[in-house]
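Tutorial, part two.
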Amino acid sequence: MIQGHGGNKNKLARQLCCPVTDIIDMSSNLNPLGPPDTIHAIIRERLSAIHSLPEPDAASMCRGFARYHDIDPRNVMAGNGTTFFIYTIPRALGVKKVVIAGPAYSDYKDACRMHGIDHTHCLAKKEQNFQLDIDKISEMAKDADLVFLCNPNNPTGALTPREKIAFLIKRHPDTCFVVDESYLPFVDDAQNLSFVSDTHYPNLLVLSSMSKIFRIPGLRTGFLSGAIPLIDKVMGYYQPWSVNSLAQEVITDIFAHPEAIEPFYEQTRVYIREEKQVFVQALQGVFGISLFDAPTYFILAELGRMTAPDFCRAIGQDKILIRDCGNFYGLTDRFVRFSLKTRQINLALADSIKKSLAHGMENHV
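Running the prediction step on this input gives:
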């Protein structure tokens, strides 16, 4: 359990005999702008909320989410991060066979293993820039109770067009599709790509994370939305007080000011576009590494001669932590991922990459 997760700042700090605060973590997929200032203010102002039990079903933050997305509150539930739902859904729906559109986030697989559920992967190919093979998924979905699909995908960043996912949902009414939209707010035109408001599909569940876009992973908050019968089934396995008091205060306040949400999203998207362009240009023509094109702020890369463990160790010497993707099913020990931050840090990573690859080349001569 929990075998597929990545970087460990504390471990690298111990290896380098430095304070953990010296480590630059570019292994975690979080908003490079950080949380809005208002979130820290809310935490300071409402710290006393931890003295009381939170709402057992987090109803207030669910109403805020439902209001923002123009859906019935009965179509949504809040949890201790989207991971809570990933592990709960297979059991709650009593599924026996799962298809995972991959390479993908390891918790989909781990959730199946936890509950002894038969699961298989439908792997996208690097030659197609990791775009999903919709026809192949459709064929495999015929014999599956549930399909996990992350859009945009982690770790590849590949974005599947909305109409292709809709095709699968309509084509296989007896198969439940869990669409993980944790990274969708970072993508242009996200509102028109999202399925959150499509609660009329009886076989669709959508995961929405607050952790990534608002950079608050420690508060552990996420939402599940879908048709009421499906939500009711998952709710049957819900534990009271799953979302802590402080998290409920923060998320409820965010949705109490909906006019600030989209501007923050757009500010993030503009920042990502600019910084990604600068970073990619800094690595143009560098031998030994290939970057995969995707609309996300995290970048999957394939190495030439160096292995991912060796490369991560070399980058780690500069106190930068990146993600070794060798434990993603469908990827090899030649794949790494890094999540962008400030321009200064991004260019420092680019310099470290060049230096590490040059040193690696010398060792192969």
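The chain is about 40% helix and 15% strand. In part three we will examine how such features are distributed along the chain.
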